[in-house]
Write a structure and sequence with these properties.
CATH superfamily: Alpha-1-antitrypsin, domain 1
Number of domains: 1
Structural class: mainly beta
Largest sheet: 5 strands, antiparallel
Shape: elongated
Radius of gyration: 20 Å
Length: about 220
Protein backbone atom coordinates (compact mmCIF):
# COMPACT_ATOMS: atom_id res chain seq x y z
CA UNK A 1 0.00 0.00 0.00
CA UNK A 2 1.19 3.52 -0.82
CA UNK A 3 0.40 6.78 0.98
CA UNK A 4 1.41 9.64 -1.31
CA UNK A 5 1.78 13.31 -0.48
CA UNK A 6 2.39 15.60 -3.46
CA UNK A 7 3.11 19.32 -3.86
CA UNK A 8 3.40 21.06 -7.24
CA UNK A 9 4.43 24.58 -8.23
CA UNK A 10 4.46 26.19 -11.68
CA UNK A 11 4.79 29.98 -11.96
CA UNK A 12 5.97 32.61 -14.41
CA UNK A 13 8.20 35.51 -13.48
CA UNK A 14 6.60 38.91 -13.00
CA UNK A 15 9.52 40.20 -15.10
CA UNK A 16 10.91 37.38 -17.29
CA UNK A 17 14.55 37.09 -18.24
CA UNK A 18 15.35 37.83 -21.88
CA UNK A 19 16.20 34.64 -23.79
CA UNK A 20 18.68 36.63 -25.89
CA UNK A 21 20.56 37.68 -22.75
CA UNK A 22 21.38 34.13 -21.61
CA UNK A 23 25.14 33.61 -21.56
CA UNK A 24 27.46 30.59 -21.47
CA UNK A 25 29.70 30.96 -18.40
CA UNK A 26 31.80 28.86 -16.02
CA UNK A 27 30.41 27.40 -12.81
CA UNK A 28 32.70 25.98 -10.10
CA UNK A 29 30.97 23.00 -8.51
CA UNK A 30 31.11 21.72 -4.92
CA UNK A 31 34.27 19.69 -5.64
CA UNK A 32 36.10 22.59 -7.30
CA UNK A 33 35.55 21.36 -10.85
CA UNK A 34 34.70 23.85 -13.60
CA UNK A 35 31.44 23.24 -15.47
CA UNK A 36 29.73 25.07 -18.32
CA UNK A 37 26.44 26.75 -17.42
CA UNK A 38 23.76 28.69 -19.26
CA UNK A 39 23.39 31.82 -17.15
CA UNK A 40 20.18 33.82 -16.92
CA UNK A 41 21.15 37.50 -16.91
CA UNK A 42 19.04 40.38 -15.69
CA UNK A 43 18.92 43.47 -13.52
CA UNK A 44 17.25 42.90 -10.14
CA UNK A 45 16.09 45.54 -7.67
CA UNK A 46 15.47 43.43 -4.54
CA UNK A 47 18.83 42.71 -2.93
CA UNK A 48 18.89 40.55 0.24
CA UNK A 49 21.75 39.68 2.58
CA UNK A 50 22.79 38.62 6.04
CA UNK A 51 26.12 38.27 7.84
CA UNK A 52 27.24 35.31 5.70
CA UNK A 53 25.48 35.55 2.33
CA UNK A 54 24.04 37.90 -0.25
CA UNK A 55 21.45 37.38 -2.92
CA UNK A 56 18.24 38.58 -4.51
CA UNK A 57 14.46 38.20 -4.33
CA UNK A 58 12.41 37.97 -7.55
CA UNK A 59 8.62 37.94 -7.75
CA UNK A 60 6.43 35.55 -9.67
CA UNK A 61 3.25 36.86 -11.31
CA UNK A 62 0.71 37.90 -8.70
CA UNK A 63 3.43 38.35 -6.07
CA UNK A 64 2.03 35.55 -3.91
CA UNK A 65 5.36 33.77 -4.27
CA UNK A 66 8.92 34.85 -4.91
CA UNK A 67 12.20 33.17 -5.80
CA UNK A 68 15.19 33.87 -3.58
CA UNK A 69 18.82 32.91 -4.14
CA UNK A 70 21.66 33.33 -1.66
CA UNK A 71 25.39 33.03 -2.31
CA UNK A 72 27.38 32.18 0.85
CA UNK A 73 30.53 34.14 1.51
CA UNK A 74 33.82 32.78 0.15
CA UNK A 75 35.12 29.94 2.32
CA UNK A 76 31.68 28.96 3.63
CA UNK A 77 29.96 25.91 2.11
CA UNK A 78 26.24 25.80 1.35
CA UNK A 79 25.88 23.05 3.97
CA UNK A 80 27.48 25.22 6.64
CA UNK A 81 25.27 28.13 5.66
CA UNK A 82 22.03 26.12 5.74
CA UNK A 83 22.94 24.63 9.12
CA UNK A 84 23.19 28.18 10.48
CA UNK A 85 19.62 29.07 9.46
CA UNK A 86 16.61 29.09 11.81
CA UNK A 87 12.87 29.72 11.20
CA UNK A 88 13.29 33.20 12.68
CA UNK A 89 16.20 33.82 10.32
CA UNK A 90 14.06 32.81 7.33
CA UNK A 91 11.26 35.14 8.38
CA UNK A 92 13.64 38.09 8.64
CA UNK A 93 15.70 37.29 5.56
CA UNK A 94 12.74 36.68 3.27
CA UNK A 95 10.57 39.50 4.60
CA UNK A 96 8.89 41.17 1.64
CA UNK A 97 11.12 43.96 0.32
CA UNK A 98 10.00 47.53 0.89
CA UNK A 99 7.70 48.89 -1.81
CA UNK A 100 9.50 52.22 -1.87
CA UNK A 101 11.11 53.26 -5.14
CA UNK A 102 14.54 51.74 -5.68
CA UNK A 103 17.23 54.00 -7.09
CA UNK A 104 19.51 53.01 -9.96
CA UNK A 105 22.43 52.77 -7.51
CA UNK A 106 20.61 49.89 -5.77
CA UNK A 107 20.19 47.83 -8.94
CA UNK A 108 22.17 44.59 -9.25
CA UNK A 109 23.16 42.68 -12.37
CA UNK A 110 22.42 39.04 -11.54
CA UNK A 111 23.78 36.03 -13.40
CA UNK A 112 22.33 32.70 -12.25
CA UNK A 113 22.40 29.25 -13.91
CA UNK A 114 19.44 27.73 -15.68
CA UNK A 115 18.93 24.29 -14.22
CA UNK A 116 16.65 21.28 -14.13
CA UNK A 117 17.10 18.99 -11.18
CA UNK A 118 15.46 15.71 -10.15
CA UNK A 119 16.41 14.20 -6.80
CA UNK A 120 15.19 11.10 -4.99
CA UNK A 121 16.13 9.88 -1.54
CA UNK A 122 14.93 7.48 1.15
CA UNK A 123 13.91 9.10 4.44
CA UNK A 124 13.80 6.03 6.69
CA UNK A 125 16.98 6.83 8.63
CA UNK A 126 16.21 10.55 8.87
CA UNK A 127 12.70 9.96 10.24
CA UNK A 128 13.95 7.31 12.68
CA UNK A 129 16.58 9.76 13.98
CA UNK A 130 13.77 12.30 14.49
CA UNK A 131 11.89 9.83 16.70
CA UNK A 132 9.60 8.06 14.22
CA UNK A 133 10.87 4.60 15.20
CA UNK A 134 7.70 2.73 16.11
CA UNK A 135 6.14 3.21 12.66
CA UNK A 136 8.91 1.09 11.11
CA UNK A 137 8.57 -1.73 13.67
CA UNK A 138 6.19 -4.57 14.48
CA UNK A 139 4.64 -2.28 17.12
CA UNK A 140 3.30 0.18 14.52
CA UNK A 141 -0.38 1.05 14.93
CA UNK A 142 -2.17 2.06 11.72
CA UNK A 143 -5.61 0.73 12.67
CA UNK A 144 -7.17 4.13 11.88
CA UNK A 145 -5.94 3.78 8.29
CA UNK A 146 -6.83 0.15 7.67
CA UNK A 147 -8.33 -2.81 9.51
CA UNK A 148 -6.63 -5.32 7.23
CA UNK A 149 -3.56 -7.08 8.62
CA UNK A 150 -0.96 -5.34 10.77
CA UNK A 151 0.94 -2.95 8.46
CA UNK A 152 4.10 -1.01 9.27
CA UNK A 153 6.15 1.48 7.28
CA UNK A 154 8.85 -0.23 5.24
CA UNK A 155 10.14 2.71 3.22
CA UNK A 156 9.63 6.47 2.83
CA UNK A 157 10.72 7.86 -0.54
CA UNK A 158 10.97 11.57 -1.32
CA UNK A 159 11.25 12.76 -4.93
CA UNK A 160 11.86 16.42 -5.82
CA UNK A 161 11.90 18.15 -9.21
CA UNK A 162 12.71 21.79 -9.95
CA UNK A 163 13.39 23.71 -13.16
CA UNK A 164 14.55 27.33 -13.40
CA UNK A 165 14.63 29.16 -16.74
CA UNK A 166 13.95 32.48 -18.47
CA UNK A 167 10.17 32.20 -18.10
CA UNK A 168 9.80 31.05 -14.52
CA UNK A 169 10.04 28.06 -12.20
CA UNK A 170 8.46 24.63 -12.14
CA UNK A 171 8.80 22.51 -9.03
CA UNK A 172 7.24 19.40 -7.56
CA UNK A 173 7.81 17.30 -4.47
CA UNK A 174 6.33 13.87 -3.90
CA UNK A 175 6.74 11.79 -0.76
CA UNK A 176 5.58 8.17 -1.01
CA UNK A 177 5.26 6.02 2.08
CA UNK A 178 5.33 2.32 1.19
CA UNK A 179 3.65 0.00 3.69
CA UNK A 180 5.43 -3.12 3.67
CA UNK A 181 27.00 35.89 -28.95
CA UNK A 182 23.77 37.46 -28.67
CA UNK A 183 22.05 40.73 -27.72
CA UNK A 184 23.78 42.88 -25.12
CA UNK A 185 22.03 44.09 -21.96
CA UNK A 186 22.75 47.19 -19.89
CA UNK A 187 25.11 46.85 -16.96
CA UNK A 188 24.01 47.75 -13.43
CA UNK A 189 26.10 49.40 -10.68
CA UNK A 190 26.37 46.13 -8.72
CA UNK A 191 27.03 42.54 -9.80
CA UNK A 192 26.10 39.20 -8.27
CA UNK A 193 27.35 36.09 -10.08
CA UNK A 194 26.01 32.72 -8.93
CA UNK A 195 28.99 30.89 -10.42
CA UNK A 196 29.53 28.58 -7.44
CA UNK A 197 27.22 26.59 -5.09
CA UNK A 198 24.29 28.56 -3.68
CA UNK A 199 21.03 28.22 -1.77
CA UNK A 200 17.65 28.87 -3.40
CA UNK A 201 14.07 29.00 -2.15
CA UNK A 202 10.51 29.55 -3.32
CA UNK A 203 9.02 31.86 -0.71
CA UNK A 204 5.41 32.40 0.36
CA UNK A 205 5.26 36.20 0.55
CA UNK A 206 2.44 36.14 3.13
CA UNK A 207 4.34 34.07 5.69
CA UNK A 208 7.89 34.93 4.52
CA UNK A 209 8.70 31.23 4.80
CA UNK A 210 10.06 28.92 2.07
CA UNK A 211 7.74 26.33 0.53
CA UNK A 212 10.70 24.86 -1.36
CA UNK A 213 14.32 25.05 -0.24
CA UNK A 214 17.34 23.62 -2.01
CA UNK A 215 20.96 24.00 -3.03
CA UNK A 216 22.65 23.97 -6.41
CA UNK A 217 26.10 22.43 -5.94
CA UNK A 218 26.72 21.39 -9.54
CA UNK A 219 25.10 21.81 -12.95
CA UNK A 220 23.04 18.68 -13.72
CA UNK A 221 23.97 17.05 -17.01
Amino acid sequence: MFLINAVAFDAKWETPYEHEATRIMDFTDYNGNTQTAKMLCGIESHFIHDDHAEGFYKYYKGKKYAFAALLPEEGMTVTEYINSLTPEHFSTLFAEPEAEKVSWEDMTMVRIPKFKYDYQTTLNETLSDMGMVRSFSEYADFTKLTSVGHPSVSEVIHDTFIQLDEDGTKAAAVTAIIMKDTAAIMDAPNELNFDRPFVYAIVDTETDMPVFLGTLTNIPE
